[in-house]
Amino acid sequence: MNKRTLHTQLIDALADTPVVFLCGARQTGKTTLVKQLAEESSKFENSRQYISLDSATALARAREDPTGFLQELKKPVIIDEVQRATALMLAIKEDVDRERHAGRYLLTGSANFLTLPGIADSLAGRVEVQTLYPFSQGEIAGTREDFIQALFQKDFPGKGSGKCSLSKEALLEAMTRGGYPDVIFRNNPKRRERWFDSYVTMLIERDVRDIANIQSISGFIRLLDLLGARSGTLCNQAELSRSTKIPASTLSLDISWLEALFLIWLVPAWSINLSKRLFKWAKLLIIDSGLACHLCGANEERLAGNSIMAGRLLESFVVGELLKQNSWTEHPVKLYHYRSQSGEEVDLVLEDRAGRVAAVEVKLSASASSRDIKGIASLRSVLGQNFVRGVVAYTGPEVIPLGDRIVAAPIGLLFA
User: Fold this and answer.
1) Where along the chain do its domains lie?
2) What is the DSSP letter of 234?
3) Residues 200, 202, 206, CA angle at the centre, nearest 5°?
């Protein structure tokens, strides 16, 4: 079994926080991870009970009498799929306030904790939220990657890092496979397609119904297909509304549900003016590259013959991988995209708590030159000394200097 990098962080959180909530899309491995923690705790006196609200009996009891349900459970306890009974949250708050012990509750859910009515308020100051994304490339390979820390270090990897290079063919295969546990070990592309088809249908018909009142399931699926084709592009909701003939208010709500289910991520725009960041268009990203490729109908052969589509999906793939790494890196950063008034762009901008900024531009090319750094150079000129480093991630084999604090680096270095 591939070890999840978040495993250690969960243990640390349970050591000092009464309630830990592990959220993430369905089928990312949350249940497997918490069951592993339960098995590890069984070796000690204070073992952790596991209960799932996928059980009809447990779910009915939790909804009908939340307080009585909790009283029947031996603490500490794991409650899986807790978004199915949000009435439990107030009962958990009351229980924690009576007996405030670290690690008393480990909760999991397939929807964003902070979007569920009343939960954020009821457990404020008592809960730590962690997100489990699909497997990262490092997790698949059995390594712990942390490119974000490398970006902000004084010494960046230089020549000799070519061993981290990946061929274009290997990249396309990794992109189309994605990181869902049930997919990464399926070598037959047709079997992966069948899994993604079932996954989308199951998730929308079940999880969306758990948290939202969706009028048209088929319309919701069509919207997801359309967003898949636009992964890596600016999210102009007014234009989307015209294209889909979905009312703007409905479209905005549907997109928020897709965010809550961890299918999409709206990457905010960076600006040196903090207030302006709220008004610029976000960039749309399908978080799992395998799902993005499936929604586009893009297999390896199609991507190999369509450089525009492949380049856009490669950007989504790399940005998604850094989003995963940001969930466990020692010093998390804020993630943005950048577009200047004159049109220069940067795929990903990373800003730390001190206001220092790094940038990553993704290129589906085996060579890199000064032409590829226009967006990064524009950002550097705006930031001055607060600009730490810019990296053009490309398919070539070597780390190459391209200018002041800017280098080209093999995409494989991001996962090393």
Assistant:
1) 6-131, 137-415
2) B
3) 120
CB 133 within 8 A of CB 181: no
Residues in contact with 145: Cβ distance below 8 Å, sequence separation at least 6, in sequence order: 136, 137, 138, 325, 414, 415, 416
Longest dimension (CA), the chain: 66
Provide CATH code, domain 6-131: 3.40.50.300
pLDDT attached to residue 120:
64
At residue 281, does pLDDT exceed 70? yes
Interacting residues of 102 by C-beta distance below 8 A, sequence separation 6+: 14, 15, 16, 17, 18
In terms of Cα–Cα distance, which of 174, 178, 182 is closest to 198? 182
CA 146-151-157 angle, 5° bins: 85
* pLDDT, tens digit (0-9, with 9 covering 90-100), for 298-348: 999 999 999 999 999 999 999 999 999 999 999 999 999 998 888 889 999
- Which 8-state DSSP code applies to residue 355? S
Q: Which two three-digit tokens encode residue 169?
A: 């063919």
Q: 350: which strand partners?
A: 335, 358
Residues forming beta bridges with residue 80, ordered by sequence position:
52
DSSP label at residue 371: G
Cβ proximity of 176 and 189 under 8 Å: yes
Cβ distance 79 to 107 under 8 Å?
yes
The span from the CA of 71 to the CA of 287, in Å, is 38
Q: Which tokens belong to 411? A: 């995409």
Distances from the Cα of 3 to the Cα of 29, 37, 55, 69, 138, angstroms: 11, 12, 27, 32, 10
C-beta separation of 256 from 282 below 8 A: no
Rounded to whole angstroms, the Cα distance separating 127 from 104 reads 11
Residues 320-335 as b/e (b if ≥16 CB within 10 A, e otherwise) read bbbbbbbbbbeeebeb
CA-wise closest residue to 127 among 156, 155, 84, 88: 88
* pLDDT exceeds cutoff 70 at 158: no
Own/partner long-range contacts of 186-193 (Cβ < 8 Å, ≥24 apart): 189/299, 189/300, 192/290, 192/294, 193/294
Q: What would you report as the CA-atom Rg of the chain, rounded to the nearest whole angstrom? A: 22
pTM > 0.85: yes or no: yes
DSSP 4: P
Q: Mind listing the pLDDT tens digit for each residue in 7-65? A: 999 999 999 999 999 999 999 999 999 999 988 877 666 789 999 999 999 999 999 99
Q: Which amino acid is at 162?
A: G
Q: How many helices (H) and strands (E) does the chain have?
A: 19, 13
